[in-house]
Design a protein that fits this description.
Length: about 325
């Protein structure tokens, strides 16, 4: 247990309460289970549209609620030291197909969560932002100071979420931290479905014995980041001493992998389809700020991460 998970009051040691919206999702469930093991009193809030309650440690308190309905949030956030806001519909292609429905969750859900955090007097609000806010960045590796150029409604939703966090810090004094996650993968991710991300798609195709579909020439690169590294960064963001009230920090492996190389690691024949719109050519995080502010660095290489994932999924070779 990390000592920062408890504090002393006249009644004895008290666990700090942490709330994670989207806590039954892929990253959320990995995060709540880790925080629980670290000794925090953890609440996972999720509407279960894609999350699964059976992923959660028995000690996690689960609240079924929707971030589009503000009434449910203040009570859940009451007494929390920090809130992680992960609830979202995090799919680029879905946001192109349904920009309004996804904005209701990704934009207004975020504003509802900020209001609830402010009303409940939460100390720190951590927002799951995304590398997609950069679009096709002019600089690689991409530092946080790079001009934002979202290429899809989803990326724009994240940009609006970040600027809302800034507003809540400026006007209401809420401490906010926007963590820009870069292409997260690992245990608990959803490999199936129309909107699955590339690693999941490749794994499902390999399991089905069909060729791996590469959109475009495969030379596009993604900074695939293992979920254990992301969770470690989140845990550090709870108590890190940060400059000012509003901070934005890249969380990525800092090591771009070409999609064609990823297909080699997963194994099997490939087919090429035309490149899709709304998706950037390359992503590559500059991670110096995370090292300086969170004392964090990624530990899992893509080769190790994919080997572990293939073992978990019953794939060998
Ligand atoms: P996920 O889809 O597994 O998790 C999202 C969770 O939010 C799900 O459990 C879902 O049930 C819940 N949810 C959706 N709508 C909700 C609503 N209206 N009310 C309450 N809960 C709701 O996705 P993930 O990959 O774990 O992503 C978590 C966060 O990290 C998201 O905000 C996403 O945008 C961000 N992010 C993820 C990645 C990645 O590569 N996975 C990269 C960048 C940013």
């Amino acid at each position: 247990m990390v000592c920062s998970a408890v504090f002393f009051s006249w009644g004895g040691f008290v666990q700090k309460k942490i709330v994670v919206t989207g806590g039954a999702g892929f990253i959320g469930s990995n995060l709540v289970n880790t925080l629980c093991r670290d000794g925090y009193a953890v609440v996972a809030l999720d509407n279960l549209v894609s999350g699964r309650r059976d992923r959660l440690d028995d000690r996690v308190r689960f609240i079924k609620a929707d971030v589009r309905e503000p009434g449910a949030l203040v009570g859940a956030f009451e007494g929390a030291d920090a809130v992680f806001h992960l609830a979202a519909l995090p799919r680029v292609q879905l946001s192109i197909a349904d920009p309004v429905g996804t904005a209701a969750v990704n934009v207004f859900g975020t504003i509802n969560a900020l209001v609830a955090a402010q009303v409940a007097r939460v100390r720190r609000f951590v927002f799951a932002s995304s590398s997609s806010v950069y679009g096709n960045p002019p600089v690689l590796p991409t530092p946080e100071t790079t001009e934002l150029n979202p290429l899809s409604p989803y990326a724009n939703h994240k940009k609006l979420g970040e600027s809302s966090c800034g507003t809540w810090s400026d006007i209401y004094g809420l401490e906010t931290v926007c963590l820009r996650f870069f292409n997260v993968y690992g245990p608990g991710f959803d490999p199936s479905g129309q909107y699955a991300l590339v690693i999941g798609k490749f794994i499902m195709q390999r399991l089905a014995g069909t060729p791996l579909t590469i959109w475009g020439d495969g030379q596009q690169a993604r900074d695939f980041t293992h979920v254990s590294d992301v969770v470690n960064a989140c845990a550090r963001a709870i108590n890190a001493k940060l400059p000012g009230k509003a901070n934005i920090i890249n969380i990525g492996a800092g090591n771009p992998t070409k999609v064609a190389y990823l297909a080699e690691l997963i194994g099997g024949p490939v087919v090429h389809e035309p490149a899709r719109t709304g998706e950037p050519r390359n992503s590559f995080a500059a991670i110096r700020r995370a090292a300086e502010l969170l004392d964090w660095k990624p530990l899992v290489s893509i080769e190790t991460g994919i080997r572990m994932l293939k073992q978990d999924m019953g794939l060998c070779g």
